Amino acid sequence: MTADIARPLARYSAFQRRGDFIFLSGVIAVEPAAGLIIRSFDDLPEGVGPTIGQTGEFSVDMKDGPILAQSWFVLDRIRATMEEAGGCMADVFKLVQYFRDLSQFPRYNTVRRQFFPDTPPVSTVVEVSAMMPSPDILIEVEATAWLPVRT
């Protein structure tokens, strides 16, 4: 398995194939091996922040950084998991996105556009009161992909 795929925090699968479909569990911005919750641009690989909206202005980055960083991390883990399953982001046709605060959707959407530059997936967006394992988790995304079994 690739180090960058979405890793379960408990006893469940990161993804499962059922025929031509790949079902991904909900992905949150947590690196379980390091015990790290992604909270800011500083928690991302070097150089990612400016590509997703980091401005270098403290007050702006403190407000927008958590949702932008978590959005990138979650979508990047979905990308890596799809590649592990033998596919790519273009194979993802449905997302269910859970937000602690729906007002953060526009910032998430700018990051999502980078991962789906052509046809965006079918989407469901829901606001929830809490997510595990911490109040610092702002977003969770589950994905479904169509990836025909190659014979």
Concise account of the structure shown:
This protein is α+β, with helices and mostly antiparallel strands. The chain has three helices and seven strands; from the N terminus they run ββββααβαββ.
Strand order of the largest sheet: 1-2-7-5-6
Uncertain segments of ≥5 residues (pLDDT<50)?
none
Q: What is the makeup of the main sheet?
A: 5 strands, mixed
Mean pLDDT: 91
Task: State the CATH class.
Answer: Alpha Beta
The fraction of residues in strands falls at 15-25%
Number of separate strands: 7
The CATH homology group name? RutC-like
Distance between the termini: 22 Å
How many domains comprise the coordinates? 1
Rg on CA atoms, Å: 15 Å
In quaternary terms, these chains amount to single chain
CATH topology: 60s Ribosomal Protein L30, Chain: A
Number of helices: 3
Structural class: alpha+beta
Supply the CATH architecture.
2-Layer Sandwich
Describe this structure in words.
The chain is α+β, with helices and mostly antiparallel strands and 151 residues long. The protein has a single domain, classed as 2-Layer Sandwich (60s Ribosomal Protein L30, Chain: A). Helices cover 28% and strands 23% of the residues. A hairpin with a 2-residue loop joins β1 and β2 (21-24). The radius of gyration is 15 Å and the shape is globular. The model has no long low-confidence stretch (mean pLDDT 91).
Supply the key terms:
alpha+beta; 5-stranded mixed β-sheet; 28% helix; 60s Ribosomal Protein L30, Chain: A; 7 strands; two-stranded antiparallel sheet; 151 residues; 3 helices
